[in-house]
Amino acid sequence: MNNVAIVGRPNVGKSSLFNKLTKSKKAIVSEFEGLTRDRQVGKSVIDNLAYEIIDSGGLNFSKNNNALDTQILNQTNLAADEADLILFVVDYKSGLLPDDQVISKLLRKKDKDICLVINKVDGVSDEIAKLDFSKLGYQQVICTSMSHNYGIDLIVELIVHKLDGIPILNEIDDNFKIAILGKPNAGKSTLINSLIGSDRLIASDLPGTTIDSIEIEIELNSDKYILVDTAGIRRKGKVTVKEEKFALLKSLESAKNANFILLIIDSSVGITSQDQALITECLKSFKPLILLFNKWDLLNQYEKERFDSELEKFNLNFGFIDNIKISAEKKTNLSKIFKNIKAIRQHLDKEYKTSILNKLLEDALINHPPSISKGLRPKLKFMSFVSKSPLAFKIHGNHLEDLAPSYKRYLDNYFRKALSLQSIPLKMIFEASDNPYAHKAKKISTGLVTRRKIKNQLRKKLSGKN
C-alpha cells in the first residue's frame, strides 16, 4: 500500500502537485491545459520511505469525446485502479464545475480512499473554500496553493498516515536508461507498448500525442531498463507554442541524461533532412545510438528497394550507426534491439590499455600522417583512455591546434573501426604539450616553408646583382 494517484480536470494543478511531492520537474507545468496525457510515475521519499505518485491526464467531459480524450480517460481509470489513495484535485478559482461532479461519481465507484484537494486557495479562508465544494460530500478535504507551497505539508502527512512506504536502503540506481526519440507519429509510444506488452502509453495517429517525457521500468532477462518516451521533435520553424518548445527541450534533455538512445525513423516517409539533423544532435551527446526504421511492414517490395538505395547513400556519413528495420505495431524484429544494446554495452564496459591505444595511434600515423600546416607538421606523441561515458580518448602532442578537421575525422573513424565501436560516438580530446621555454622563444610570424621561399627569393636577387 504505497500508491497515490492524482486525478482531476485539466489545469487544476495536478502536475504541480506531482512535481512537489516527487521533488522533481518531470511533469510539464503550464497555464495551457491538456499537457499531461499519459500517466507520469514518480517517487516521493518521506523519512526514508518511498511512495509511488501517479500523475494522470486531465479529464474533460464538456468537449466532444474524441479518441484521444477516451484514451486519457482509460489511462486515468488505470491510475485510479492501481492507487491506494486518490488525491482528487479541483480549482477553487473556477468553482465547482459539472466535470468535477462527473469525475467525483467515477471515483466513488472505485471504492478507494479519496481526499479532495482544493487548489488555488489564495486570499480566502479554508472554511469558505471548503463550503463551495461541500456538495461533493468528502470527509477528507485539504486546501492548497501550489504557487505558495500552502497545504503541501498536510498532503505529505496524509500520505504517511494512510499508506505504508517502502524502506529506502541507500539503493544505487543502476537501471540503464534508454531515451526513445523521433519525429511526431514515428511510433515511439507504440514501440514502448509493444515492448512492455500493455497499452501503458497513449498511441495515436494524431501527431504530438506525447508531450511529457514518460519513464517506464522494464525487466528483460534479469536486465533492468528504464524506457523514456519523449515528445515528437519537429523542425524549429514548426514549433510555435511555448509549451511545445519546452517539450522539445525536455526531449533533448532526456537524450543527454540517458545511457542509450533509440532514434525511430518512419520508413514509410523515408530518411528526411530532419532525421539526419536529429542524428547529428544525438551524436553531440556522445551516447550510443541505434536507428530503428519503423513501419517497415507498410512498404511494398518496390518501396523497400528504393529505401535500401537511399540507405546506401545515407551510410556514407552514418554507416557506423547500427540500424534495425522493425514494425512496432506488429512486434517485428523487436528482440534484435536489446541484443544489439547488450553487445554495445559490453564494448562500453571494456578497459582500454594505454599500450594498445598507442600502438593503434602509431599505426594510424604510419597509414596516414597529418598534413603540414603553416610550415609545421603536427606531432601526435601518445594517447590515453579518459572515460567510459562518454567514451573518450586523449591525444597529447605538439601543434595539435593545426590539425585539419578532416584528419580528426580520419582518426575518429580509424579508432572506431580498430576497436569495433559500432554505434558508439567517440570523443577525441587533443591536448598540446606545454613548452617550458615558450616564453623565451622569439615569435615567428611565418612558417618554415614561407621562410625558405623568402630566403630563396633573396638569394636570386643577390645572384642577379653579381
TrEMBL record:
According to the record, the signal peptide region is: none
Q: Which Pfam families match?
A: KH_dom-like (PF14714), MMR_HSR1 (PF01926)
Gene Ontology terms: biological process: ribosome biogenesis
Q: Where does GTP 2 bind?
A: 182-189, 229-233, 294-297
Q: Which UniProt keywords apply?
A: GTP-binding, Nucleotide-binding, Repeat, Ribosome biogenesis
Q: Where is the GTPase Der C-terminal KH-domain-like domain?
A: 353-430
Annotated ranges, domain G = 3-120, 177-295
Q: Which domain of life is it from?
A: Bacteria
Output the NCBIfam families linked to this UniProt entry. Answer: GTPase_EngA, small_GTP
User: According to its UniProt record, which protein family does this protein belong to?
Assistant: Belongs to the TRAFAC class TrmE-Era-EngA-EngB-Septin-like GTPase superfamily. EngA (Der) GTPase family.
* Task of the protein: GTPase that plays an essential role in the late steps of ribosome biogenesis.
Q: How does it assemble?
A: Associates with the 50S ribosomal subunit.
Q: What is this protein called?
A: GTPase Der
Query: Organism source for this protein?
Result: beta proteobacterium KB13
Provide the gene name from the record.
Answer: der
